[in-house]
Write a structure and sequence with these properties.
By secondary structure, the chain is an alpha+beta fold. Helices cover 34% and strands 28% of the residues. It has helices spanning 2-12, 26-40, 44-47, 61-72, 124-135, 178-184, 187-192; strands at residues 77-89, 93-95, 98-113, 140-144, 149-162, 170-173. Strands 1, 2, 3, 4, 5 and 6 form a six-stranded antiparallel sheet that branches. The protein starts with a helix and ends with a helix.
């Protein structure tokens, strides 16, 4: 379950504030801007209205919202997103009635433990850095001693999905996790974007 929650966390943490990158599709740009705003405000109820519902095959929506709230602010720690910058929006790939676009972005986030005495534990910093490096893969993880804050930054990918001409663009982050990918994306999309 912990691995699924971490995977979903990576999948959904796709945006907080971003430089305007035009996709050439006004509706997509507007939806993406709104999606970014809900991320910035950590308004998970509204944010999840912009998430593609295929993710709810993995876990129920209400459970995921509560997991995200607890991940960002709980008795032990507080997390926040500092910046996200959309770098590019790829060309449309059509599969059946659906349209898919890859969105590349960079993200910076921070994590602070609420009990300041925990930082006095021998090797705490080293152990946490190793744990975060393992959890966040190729992201750059660092520790700011002055503010006692861990920082995680790096590039990532999400996808914009429009199921048919009548539906709005929805979003979903990408993590190379076979079970998640197969639950979310059709086979033709997996092959086109080389997701596995």
């Amino acid at each position: 379950m912990r691995r699924i929650i971490l995977g979903l966390f990576a999948v959904l943490l796709t945006s907080i504030s971003f430089a305007q990158v035009s996709s050439g599709d006004k509706m997509l740009d507007e939806r993406l801007a709104t999606y970014m705003q809900w991320n910035k405000q950590l308004n998970f109820e509204k944010l999840f209205e912009y998430i593609h519902p295929n993710i709810f095959k993995v876990a129920p929506k209400d459970q995921m919202i509560e997991a995200f709230k607890a991940a960002f602010d709980n008795e032990a720690m507080q997390m926040g997103i500092d910046t996200i910058e959309v770098k590019s929006v790829g060309e449309v790939f059509k599969s059946g009635a659906g349209s898919y676009r890859r969105i590349d972005y960079t993200m910076s986030m921070h994590l602070l433990f609420k009990d300041a005495t925990i930082y006095e534990t021998p090797d705490f910093e080293k152990a946490m850095l190793a744990s975060f490096e393992k959890s966040f893969g190729d992201k750059i993880v660092s520790f700011d001693k002055a503010s006692k804050t861990f920082r995680i930054r790096g590039g990532d990918v999400m996808y914009a999905i429009k199921d048919n001409a009548q539906t709005p663009w929805l979003f979903i982050g990408y993590e190379k996790n076979k079970d998640l990918i197969e639950a979310i994306f059709p086979k033709a999309v997996i092959e086109h974007f080389n997701l596995l």
